[in-house]
Every structure is written in C-alpha cells, then in structure tokens.
Amino acid sequence: MILIISKKQETTTNEVIKWLLAMGKKFIRVQEDEVFEIKTKEKRIYIESDRNCFYLDEISSVWYRRGGLKFKNFHYDNHSVNIHMQEHQHWLHDYVIKTLESKKHINKQSNSAVNKLFVLEQAKKTGLDVPEYYLAENTCDVVLDKTIIKPLTGNITIDAYQNYGESIMYTHVIDRQEEDSFFITFFQEKIEKDFEIRSFYLNGRFFSTAIISQNDERTKTDFRKYNLEKPNRNVRYNLPIEIERKTRQLMELLDINCGSIDFIKSEEKFYFLEVNTVGQFLGVSSMCNYGAEKAIAEYL
Amino acid sequence: MRYFNLFSDILITKGVNRILISDLQRNYSELQSLELNNIIEELKSNSIEDVFALYDQESKEMLQEYLNFLVEKEYGFITENSWDENFPPLQTDFSDSSTISNIFIETADLMFSPQLVQSIENLGIRHLVIYCESKLSLMDFLTLEDTFNDSCLESIEIFSLYHEDVNDDFVKKLDEKCLRIYSLIFHKCDNAAFEVTDTFKFNLVFTDQHLKINSCGKVDLKYFETNMLKVLEAINHNSCLHKKIGIDINGNIKNCPAMCNSFGNINTTTLEEAILHEDFKKYWNLTKSGIQICKDCEFRNICTDCRAFTEQTHKNNDGLDISKPLKCGYNPYTSQWEEWSLNPLKQKAIQSYSMQQLNYDA
C-alpha cells in the first residue's frame, strides 16, 4: 500500500494517481484537512481519520507531496499529568512519522521544506558554481543593474496585497539605490544567461529541460513571466555528467530525493540557483515528453 | 566554423512535393519547400560554412535567406565549433494512463446508467462527446454535470438540437453550474436567441446546419491541430480510433458510432468487456504511414484520419481497411485540395455509405 500525503485538488498528485490506477497499485491519499488518532489493535499500530484508517505495517512506500500528517493532541486538566502526556503523545507522533519515513519514500514531511540560504552553502561545498550572494539591510553594496533580489521564502506569492488577488514575487534586477534601510533582504549577483535549465530530479535521475527565453525581453530575468504569444522553448537537455554528480551529492546532503532544480547556463559555466521540492514540474516535463508523473508512479 | 542545431521539438514531415514544419511547442505548423528540407538535412552533418561551399554564388543568397528564416522562427540556433550535443532528440514514444481516453455517445437523452458511469471511471476516460438529436432542458445538462461530479472525467462536449428555451439566461446558468462542459454546439438553429460573446467557460456555437453522425470524418486543414500529445499519438497509433470508444443510438458499443462493427450492446455488455474483444483494438496501431496515399502526405502527423468512411480501395494482410479517408479532398501528389464529394473516383464508396443526403460543408 502506497501512502500519499498531499493537498486537495493538487494537479501533480492527481496525475500520478491516474498512473497508479493504471498500474493497479493500491494507495491511500491523505489531505490537509485530516487529523489522525493513533490506535492499536492486536499489538499493531494503526492511525485513523474521518477519511482514512490504516496499519503502519501495511504501508510499503510513502510520497510526501504537500501538507502533512496531523495528529489529534489530547489535553489533561491536571497540570503534571498534562506535561507528561504531552511528551508521551509527542513521542508517539514522532514514532509514526519516523516509521513512515524509514520506508521507501519520495521526500519526507520532516525535511521537505528547504532553506534557500542553507542550500546555497551546501551547493558551494559540493563544488557547484553559485552566483555570489549576501544578505543586507540597505543598497550600499549593491552594484546597480548587476544584482538581483528574490524571496527567501518557499512560497513566492502574496495574497490580497494592494487590491491584487494574488501577486507573484519575481526575480528582479536592482536599478536604483534605496535611501532608507529595510528588512534584511537576499541579494545575488545577476548572471548573464545563455538559457535556464530546470531539472526534475527523482532518486538520482535527472530529467532536464533547457528553457530558452533569452530572445525575449520579458522573460530575460525570470522565465516565469510567460510570454503567451511566443512561449519559451522548453527542450530536452542533458546536464554535463560532472554537474549531475555534484548535484546528486547536494541532494544526498540535503536528504531530498525529489525536486526541481534550477540552473543558469552562462557560456561554459552552470550556475546552481535553487531546489524546489513542492513546485509544479509536469508542464515542463510534458513539453519534453519525459513522463515525470509516470516515473513517480513507477518508483512508488 | 558555425553549426546549425534544430530544436528537438521541431518536427519535419516530408511529403511528395513539400514539407510540413510542426512546432510542437508553439502548436503551429507551416508548409515549406523540399529545398529547405535538403538544407536542413545538410546542416545536420555539415558546418554552415561547408554547406555554403556546396552552393554557387546565386544559391548562396537563397541559402542565407533560409538560414535567417530558421533562426528568426526560432526553429533552431547556431553554435560555434560544433553542434551542442547536450540537446538530445525528442523521444517520440506515446504514453497515456487511460485505458480509453475518449468516449463518443450518440443518445436520445442525458441519462446514463450507473454501470456506464462506473465503466467510464474504471477505464480512466478523460473526454466525453455527446451527440443528441433531441431538445435538452437546463435540468438535463445539470443532471449530466452532477452525474460526473466525483469522477476522473475532465471534459464534456455536447452537440444537441437547438430549441427556443436556449436563451441568454439558460446559457448563463450553465456557465455558473458546470465545470466539465467545455464545448456546446446547438445545431439546426435558424435564429440564435442572442449574440455569442466570449465570456463563458465553454465554447458556444449555434449553427443552422443539421448535424448527423455521418457528418463526422471530414479531413480538412481547419480540423488539423498541432499539439505535442496529438502528434506523438499519431506517430505511434491511429489518430482516429486509438483509445476511443463509441456507443451508437441503439446502445451498440463500437470503435466509433459511425462504424458498422459492434462489440456488444450497452444493456448487456460493459465497456470493459467490449474492449476485450479481439477486434476492438485492431485499428489502434495503424498509423498514417500504413495507409495508402496518406503515407506520402506531408499532413500525416497532424491529420485527424477517419476509419469510418474510407475510399474502400485497399485492405492489408490482416484485413484492415488501409484506404485513404473518403472525406479528404487533398492529393499529396499534386498538392491540390479539391471538393472530395465531387471526385468521380469516390462515387462508388459514397454510394456504399448511402451518403447522398450528406451535408458537405460542416
């Protein structure tokens, strides 16, 4: 039995599930609104929510996509009892998560959210080229037109800001100094790119796509600013073996076995930008006929 | 030395007199000369300078123009010293998780049995097309939407008879309540109740033509679609029948409602049982390269094909009809389009389908 931890109406999950059905593989899909209680029967542990109920030892593989397993937490009136029971429950929850994560899996609930700053440091350690970056609270050290800013957050959208429904914080080139100081911000050297490369990574394998947008002013600094009239060309690409080796090493260091990895190719160099574990990768994959959703279903 | 690299998502289909360049990323195809094809071929194994050396002064200008064209259209790019070997070719295998992807149902109403709905789910069917010769009420449409509320079905297209209740309000209500309907065609409509604007979730058409099941199967430029998945399917399978199933007005399960062969009746046979019949999938792997005349045509990879109505001139060793679609007026040997129904060579086949009353211009 495969355990899928995801959110409602999540497209990637839906597409993978279609393949699981076609392959006759059994699965359980857990969504963000479920809360589980841990129980036992005949010395076996099972967990139960309104929608699902399964023994831990039934699960053969786990795909952590989004959201997470949540548990009911009981409180007790007696203060001393409560302190003890909180810890008692903590270790039970911890045991369930650890047991599930020790099975064959694609990503883990406990470390799927990556810290962009930490990832960049680790990437440098593996010998990957990383554009120079720093944190600052003013623009004193910024070289205008040669520096970009981008969010440190995993979620790059902002809801309901200044009358917009949803805004995306794109990578942006700094073209003027700010007089005031501001909240600590991530600055990075702007790399003149030949093109971008997005690799879907699954357990050591790379499915890479060259995203060729340089002919288009609109998509020069951020390919997500789509040009609908003349879309970027997304074609199959093979990263050099050496870059794949270092990146594989990075993913092992981060203990992540699935994600989208962004690079910039600039002449002979491949600059590592970031790893994204929760992004949508099926669009890029299907334009190259990679069948990433099928590869995930096969792995599980 | 400079080298020209063709992008892997540019597919060139060679015909007798011309080539079709299909841009599978930008969903667009265009006709070009065989001359351009020769140049592209030469550029695959020679540097740009070496190719130029093959041509005399006058032709060099033409060559330069072609090269500019290829780069401006972003069909490829130029590199120094060598081709960029990190760009591998597109793999043209086709995979789809559905057992059946499309179902075409000819029906008198929109009531489907629970068994049929379950079969649609079991087979992973994504697209449903309904052809209805009767007048459908708003309630009928909403019931249909509700029937597939919790299913894996992604889209529904409906052809139904126009009637005067179909007004602005009717369509607005549909737009509010329906998620899966993406195309609505009301036929036999002499006077549409309102002007169609582009504001609905679905595509809406009122046509004065009286569409029939045998209106289907026309092969024409306006039906061709350049789309990565469709093209990959056409390269590997039959673009008309692969993963398709049909139910005719009498409940007979077929490859397509317009075909004769039945694999059982929906009242006694499930779709799952019908597709197990040894002949059900016999056309699935007949690609255009196995069909007479079409195999030489530059449109073969974007063509819709039709196995229901053919010229009935050729059969292969397995008994498959490998004749050109009857309703195709294109001749790849002369590169001319003509009105198919007037072609004297097709009259015998037309009569055998008793299509004299056909409307020719849908």
Structural overview:
The complex is a heterodimer of chains A (300) and B (362). Chain A contains six helices and 18 strands. By secondary structure, chain A is α+β, with helices and mostly antiparallel strands. Chain A has three domains: 2-111, Rossmann fold; 113-130 and 193-300, D-amino Acid Aminotransferase, Chain A, domain 1 (2-Layer Sandwich); 132-190, no CATH class. Chain A has a five-stranded antiparallel sheet with strand order 16-15-14-17-18. The longest helix of chain A is centred in the N-terminal third of the chain and has 23 residues, at 79-101. The mean pLDDT of chain A is 89. Chain B is of the alpha/beta class and 362 residues long. Chain B folds into three domains: 2-86; 102-211 and 243-276, Rossmann fold; 310-361, no CATH class. Helices cover 23% and strands 19% of the residues of chain B. Chain B is built from nine helices and 14 strands. Chain B has a seven-stranded mixed sheet with strand order 10-9-8-7-6-11-12, with no helix packed on it. In chain B, helix 5 (138-147) packs parallel to helix 6 (168-177). The longest helix of chain B has 16 residues, at 57-72. Chain B is globular. The interface between A and B is medium-sized, with 25 and 24 residues.
